Amino acid sequence: MKTTxxxxxxxxxxxxxxxxxxxxxxxxxENTEVRDLRATALKRDYQVFxxxxxxxxxxxxxxxxxxxxxxxxxxxxxxxxxxxLTKHAGMEETIVVGLSxxxxxxxxYSRRRDYTPTVPRKHDYRSDMPGRPLALGEAPAYARxxxxxxxxxxxxxxxxxxxxxFFVGHSYGSLLGLQILFDKPRTxxxxxxxSPSLWYDGGVMFNRLEVYGERHRxxxxxxxxxxxxxxxxxxxxKRARDEENADMVADLRDFDKALKAQRxxxxxxxxxxxxxxxxxxxxxxxxxxxxxxxxxxKK
Length: 299
Known about the structure:
Layout: H1 2-16, E1 32-39, E2 44-51, E3 63-68, H2 71-89, E4 95-99, H3 107-115, H4 139-157, E5 160-170, H5 172-183, E6 190-194, H6 200-215, E7 221-228, H7 248-261, E8 267-274, H8 283-294
Parallel strand pairs: 3-4, 3-5, 5-6, 6-7, 7-8
Antiparallel strand pairs: 1-2, 2-4
Helix pairs in contact: 2-8, 3-5, 5-6
C-alpha cells in the first residue's frame, strides 16, 4: 500500500512540472555525422563532425571538402553558411568537416596546445584546468594527426574530392593553418585564414616565413586572409608583437607583403579588412568572402 501511494505521489508531482522543465530531446542538425577518432601518436581522443550536402544521397559525384578548426563553435555556423550560399548564391556544394577539441579538455586548453606552433619564450599563460600542467606549442604534432589520420578517414568514408581541400581557421586556428602552409603546403589546396594571431611568440610566424624563403623557391597555395578593422592597435598603446599591444591589422598587412616579396610563382594571396568588425564578430564574413573567392558559383 505504501509503495502504491508513493508511486502515485511521484506521478502526480511529475505531471505538475511545467513542460519546459521536463527532459526534451536535443536539436539535431540534419545530414550530419560524428566519428570518434583516437589520435595514436598524441594519445588523445577527438571527434570529427561531418556535414553532408543536401544532394549527397542522390548521386555518386564527389564534393570539395572544407576542414574547419574550433568545431565546437564553428561547425554549425560553417555548415549553415555553406548551405545558404549554395541555395541562394549558387555556390558549389561542399562537405564540411569540423575538427573538435580533445575529449576531456576545455576549448581553451585544447586549442592553446594543438594550434600554437611553439612554446613562447616569454609568456604569462596559466592552465585553465586544475591539476593539468600548461600545454603549448604542439601544432606540428597535431598537423601530423590531421594528415595521417583525419584526411584518410574522410577519403575512405565519404565521396570527398581530396584534390580540392579547404582549410578554415580563425585566430589560433589560423596559426595552425600557417604551420601547415610552411611545413606541407600541399596538404590543402586552399586556405581561408581569419585574424591570425601573428603576435604569438614575438611574431614567430614572420621568422618561419623567412626560413621558408631561404629554403624554397616556390609556395604552391591559394590563401585568403580576412580580419576586422577594429583589430588594430588601441589608442595610446605602443605597437609590439604581443597579445596586449598587437596591431593585428598592420601585422597581417606586413605578413602578406613579406609573402608577396618572395615572388613565389604559384602563391596567390588576398587580404580583406572588414569595416566595423572585431576579433569576435568577423569570422562569418571571413568565411563567406573566402568561399566566394575560391568556389565557383552559378550566378
